[in-house]
Amino acid sequence: MDYLNKISRVIIITTIIATFFALSESHPINSRNDLHLQLKRLFAPTSEKTWSNWAGTVTNNPQYIFRPNTVDDLKDIVKNAKVNGKKVRCAAHGHSWSSLSATKDYLVIVNNLTKVTVQKNVKYGWTVTAEAGASVKQIDEVLRSNNPPLAIDSTTVIDSVFASGIVSTGSHGAKTQGATISDQVVALQIVTGDGLLGIIYTVTFRVEPLFNLRMIDTTPLATDWLKPANIKKYYESSDSLEVFYWPFNQGNIDTSKDLLWVKQWIRTQTQATVSHQAWVIQKQLADPIIATANEVYQFLLNNPELTPTSSATLWKLGPGKFPSDLVLEAEDALHFQPGLDAIIVDTSEFTFKVDKDFINVSDEILYILKRLAELAKQGQFPLNIIAEFRINKASKSILAPSYDNDPNAIYCNIELSSYIGTKGWQDFATEMGKRWIDKYQARPHWGKEWEYVTGVKSFLRTALGARLEAFEKVRAKYDLGKIFFDNDSLKQIFYG
């Protein structure tokens, strides 16, 4: 473990490596039948022919799909890949929109690796170790049942995603003084070919005694609230902060009248005003509203001109019911949104450095309102679910969008989401992504939609610069054959 601890930071900082293998050159079996027999002698593949991500936006037809149940299964798959000269990619929950898991050879789906254990050590205090396919929800449940109850300081809003996935894509929460989930990792166990790079088997996170958060929801007028000084004040006074803009929530195309949904979390010693059990039931009560929203969005695909009216109705059923002020246990507060998996969306996210006075954060959110109003006048409604922003500290992970040499640097993550299949969505997401690249050297979230943005791959190759060189030193040492990058987008970025 001492050696693992030394190399774990290197692995963690290469935030997308978790989906890769380093596999040495080998002598391939000549026929598919012989290969199948070879596979059967070790851990057998499934009969599945196709894999799709959660949103159905990426479909993959690998030669074989594996669903390992143990670490020995992973070892068998690696051995077989080495013998047959195959490349391997991994998938977890599949809650990524980019092509990171795509492969022509072996796809390893880690969903059956779900063990979670809690431990305490001298160096880190309390930690939790999760197998690659353990969901955030499973991790939370184990931590809650521990004596004493524990919690991860910052995590993703959605709790159905898996440990290896959120680490490997550089995912993040809304904690103002936090960075990416990768920055909370203290150790990894990896099944390798002949070197450092490989499949993540377990991830170990720092945790702490369960704490409470005061969760405050308000719905101010967007143009009033989006003042640089005001955003900065909220950032500095919040443990976590998430700001949502629900387009056309006042029922017309005059976005200057629209409201924001501002969610602020503050640590507190106050007892929870809603118990965990009551909160679970309260979230379940939202199911009919979510089902209704799904039907509305499907209707809008063919009737986009009704977006303002529909948005105003859904706003009143959801965020429009606020303000509210609750005290919740940490996991309940952080995973506040019910049914996020139930509405299938297209999502793009870019991250840029916040300027000294938060002016660029204010400018870009207000620009979204302005641009949507302009498009609405032309009968176009490409954004029909939400635009949101979260503000975090810089990451130490060298491939993270928010990486910075200055640990006190602050980054804004702007995410745009529309119901899948919305007309004009990709053009709008491309326009905004290109704007943020040109103005701020913004970088995309690896797990969201970014590959279709004009010039993004050549930009990333230039923008990552020295960090790619640092990565290449690791790769050159442990993967002489350059065969663990079975992904066209990443090849273009890393190797030109």
From TrEMBL:
GO cellular component: membrane
This protein's UniProt keywords: Oxidoreductase
Top-rank taxon: Eukaryota
Top EC category: oxidoreductase
Gene3D superfamilies, alphabetized: 3.30.465.10, FAD-linked oxidases, C-terminal domain, Uridine Diphospho-n-acetylenolpyruvylglucosamine Reductase, domain 2
InterPro entries (alphabetical): ALO_C (IPR007173), Cytok_DH_C_sf (IPR016170), FAD-bd_PCMH (IPR016166), FAD-bd_PCMH-like_sf (IPR036318), FAD-bd_PCMH_sub1 (IPR016167), FAD-bd_PCMH_sub2 (IPR016169), FAD_lactone_oxidase-like (IPR010031), Oxid_FAD_bind_N (IPR006094)
Domain FAD-binding PCMH-type: 58-264
Enzyme Commission number(s): 1.1.3.37
Pathways per UniProt: Cofactor biosynthesis; D-erythroascorbate biosynthesis; dehydro-D-arabinono-1,4-lactone from D-arabinose: step 2/2
One MF term in the entry's GO annotations: FAD binding
Protein family according to the UniProt entry: Belongs to the oxygen-dependent FAD-linked oxidoreductase family.
PANTHER family: D-ARABINONO-1,4-LACTONE OXIDASE, L-GULONOLACTONE OXIDASE
Protein name: D-arabinono-1,4-lactone oxidase
Organism annotation: Ambispora gerdemannii
